[in-house]
Design a protein that fits this description.
four-stranded mixed beta sheet; two-stranded antiparallel ribbon; 13 helices; 5% strand
Length: 386
């Protein structure tokens, strides 16, 4: 970024809670860095974080814990986030649109849950007051790192990505009023100052933000599904406090599948019973048997068609999402293609083994009968005068 973010920070001059005070910085009783000095000794802490002193290492550790998302960056390092959300940094719904979509705004202080949603909830982390300070940006985030530059760069990229989400979460004044109501932004922050600040992050490139913030809103259900692969854990974030609520999410689809197959099996059983039924001389019973047989066949076909329709709807929605995944890296596409080819080869081998295991191999007479059904091609000599 060619221009300093500190020049656009809402808190400037005397309004900056981290304004430099040369008198306090020269005090022999305090070892507070000059760039984080405050007007009074009683305020030697980060704004909004009274337990965090202004020691450089303490501030850096606090900023890292508040902004950096190592777990989500691990997902992206394995090229898994494209399975969780549309690969676009701008895929973030505004606060008012989140409510339109039936989601409750839930406040969290964990950056790993910021802009993560599940069912009717979306988790949002408030903007720390110190992240709105021009002095903090100028003398810490934009200043050359004296120690571990990699750690400083990771914090800066996470800070830019985090604020870039607020450029999309708060796009109208109604969003801003809602943000103040939910304490997502300080109450003394003006709408105009906020707009000027977040405008810096409107067109920020993905290279300037941490890997997590190359994506917008993330689905917690898919993060939990991929957690064993990405993190080696059972879930990314536990959402069920009791076993009853956890198993309730499994019972609904399980009961649906059981009911679906029960209907199919009942229809087949009825058809087999109709075939074994002794036919009397009365024509009505012959007609009844024919109706039962055709009804069983129609039932089976109907439910198979319903299953195919549901599968088609699922695949249609999946393909519609995949059309948006133009930002998938070539490496990910190659890995996905190789995985699909490997799956197909495995199924080809497994099908032969299953036929032998369950005695489904074709007999020699069946093979001979099939060969007899194949069309035969005969050569015709088309000589002149023939």
């Amino acid at each position: 970024m060619s221009y300093p973010i500190s020049s656009h920070a809402p808190y400037q001059g005397q309004d900056d809670p981290l304004i430099t005070s040369q008198a306090h910085a020269s005090s022999p009783t305090k070892a507070t860095p000059t760039y984080l000095s405050t007007d009074t000794p009683s305020a030697c802490h980060l704004p909004g974080s009274p337990r965090i002193s202004l020691d450089c290492d303490t501030v850096e550790g606090h900023a890292e814990s508040e902004l950096v998302t190592p777990d989500l960056d691990q997902y992206q390092s394995l090229n898994l986030l494209w399975l969780v959300s549309t690969p676009s940094r701008r895929h973030v719904s505004s606060l008012t649109h989140q409510i339109v979509r039936g989601r409750q705004l839930v406040i969290t202080e964990q950056a790993r849950l910021h802009c993560v949603w599940i069912n009717d909830r979306v988790f949002l982390k408030p903007i720390p007051r110190w992240l709105l300070s021009a002095t903090f940006w100028r003398n810490y985030l934009e200043a050359p790192a004296a120690g571990n530059s990699t750690r400083r760069d990771r914090i800066v990229r996470a800070a830019k990505g985090f604020l870039a989400t607020y450029a999309l979460l708060v796009t109208h004044e109604s969003d801003f009023e809602l943000a103040r109501e939910k304490r997502l932004v300080p109450n003394n922050l003006a709408w105009e100052d906020f707009c000027m600040f977040v405008a810096v992050f409107d067109d920020i490139a993905d290279d300037n933000v941490s890997p997590r913030y190359s994506y917008g809103d993330l689905r917690l259900s898919r993060l939990n599904l991929l957690a064993p692969l990405a993190l080696g854990k059972l879930n990314y974030q536990k959402v069920h406090g009791q076993y009853t609520s956890y198993f309730a999410t499994i019972f609904a689809p399980l009961i649906f599948v059981i009911g679906f197959w029960s209907l199919l099996l009942n229809a087949m059983q009825t058809g087999l019973a109709a075939l074994d039924m002794q036919i009397t001389s009365r024509a009505e019973w012959e007609l009844f048997q024919a109706v039962v047989l055709w009804f069983c066949v129609a039932t089976i076909i109907t439910f198979l068609a319903a299953g195919i329709l549901l599968l088609a709807i699922f695949l249609g929605r999946l393909l519609n999402e995949l059309r948006k995944y133009k930002a998938i890296t070539p490496r990910t596409r190659i890995l996905a293609g190789l995985g699909l080819c490997g799956y197909c080869l495995f199924m080809l081998r497994a099908s032969d083994y299953a036929e032998k295991k369950f005695g489904l191999e074709a007999r020699e007479d069946e093979k001979e009968e099939l060969r007899g059904m194949l069309p035969r091609v005969s050569a015709v000599d088309r000589r002149k005068g023939g």
